[in-house]
UniProtKB/TrEMBL annotation:
<dbReference type="Pfam" id="PF13409">
    <property type="entry name" value="GST_N_2"/>
</dbReference>
<dbReference type="InterPro" id="IPR036282">
    <property type="entry name" value="Glutathione-S-Trfase_C_sf"/>
</dbReference>
<dbReference type="InterPro" id="IPR010987">
    <property type="entry name" value="Glutathione-S-Trfase_C-like"/>
</dbReference>
<dbReference type="InterPro" id="IPR040079">
    <property type="entry name" value="Glutathione_S-Trfase"/>
</dbReference>
<dbReference type="InterPro" id="IPR036249">
    <property type="entry name" value="Thioredoxin-like_sf"/>
</dbReference>
<dbReference type="Pfam" id="PF13410">
    <property type="entry name" value="GST_C_2"/>
</dbReference>
<feature type="domain" description="GST C-terminal">
    <location>
        <begin position="132"/>
        <end position="261"/>
    </location>
</feature>
<protein>
    <recommendedName>
        <fullName>Glutathione S-transferase</fullName>
    </recommendedName>
</protein>
<feature type="domain" description="GST N-terminal">
    <location>
        <begin position="42"/>
        <end position="129"/>
    </location>
</feature>
<dbReference type="InterPro" id="IPR004045">
    <property type="entry name" value="Glutathione_S-Trfase_N"/>
</dbReference>
Length: 261
């Protein structure tokens, strides 16, 4: 591996393609017409950890008897660049899944960013979100923690351990250390808590489980659980297995994503 000399000003080498379609510019790249089904909630997503959050909540709402939580689910294939189409960018200018449109009111409402969608749906239907200030603040603590911490797991550890074109010791060591620190934090938190927010199952669990639950269960990054020695986080693993047994979670993992083209 050759030494990299950092230039004074970075320049984009457009001829060098990458598997994720990354570019240093935002906005749509082509005209696109997204389908719209007959349900009030239209979800455009994929079965990634962030995408799973929303389908889990929607299935939990249905399990709880919320009739208005019916939804159409469409597949945004990020490997093919669907997230850069004009219609999707109108919903989420950041070109990331998941994104949702709510057509139940007088005016359509767009919602993007996974935790924003969780909060929107939980508040809309009054489910899986606490009502007291103290409990709600604790919920927000964990939701904001997840949005800030998970990129070190996915874009950091997951990328360099599993997706990078060749292994590099420094970034793998750096992000493995941070990922294990986060797993240890959650494991210690779950010693005295049945769920992330205490004794009640909430959207905090739905936000964290697709990342940390699936990771310790060996479902992410080519079975990275062994590399991380995830079996040592016994409280976290027990929580992960408990969530995985919920009927709504099982349905969410098997959700049928309709094609957009």
């Amino acid at each position: 591996m050759s030494e990299y000399n950092i230039p004074k000003v970075w320049e984009w080498k457009q001829e060098e393609k990458n598997q994720f379609g990354n570019q240093p510019v935002a906005g749509s790249r082509f005209e696109q017409k997204l389908p719209v089904g007959d349900k009030s909630l239209q979800v455009y997503s994929l079965g990634t950890p962030n995408g799973m959050k929303v389908t889990i909540l929607l299935e939990e709402l249905r399990e709880a008897g919320v009739e208005d939580a019916q939804y159409d689910l469409y597949k945004i294939n990020i490997g093919e660049g669907d997230q850069f189409g004009s219609d999707f960018v109108k919903i989420n200018p950041n070109s990331k899944i998941p994104a949702m449109m709510d057509y139940s009111g007088e005016q359509p409402i767009r919602v993007f960013e996974s935790v924003s969608i969780l909060l929107y749906l939980a508040e809309k239907f009054g489910k899986f979100i606490p009502t007291t200030l103290a409990e709600r603040t604790e919920l927000m603590n964990w939701l904001f923690w997840q949005t800030g911490a998970a990129p070190f797991v996915g874009g950091g550890f997951g990328h360099f351990y599993h997706y990078a074109p060749f292994p590099q010791e420094y970034p793998i060591d750096r992000y493995t250390m941070e990922t294990k620190r986060q797993l240890d934090l959650l494991d210690k938190h779950l010693v005295e808590n049945a769920y992330i927010n205490g004794e009640e199952y909430t959207i905090a669990d739905m936000a964290l489980w697709p990342w940390y639950g699936r990771l310790v269960q060996g479902e992410l990054y080519g079975g990275a659980a062994e590399f991380l020695n995830a079996q040592e986080y016994t409280n976290l693993k027990a929580w992960a297995d408990k969530i995985a047994e919920r009927p709504a979670v099982k349905r969410a993992l098997e959700a049928d994503y309709k094609p957009i083209k």
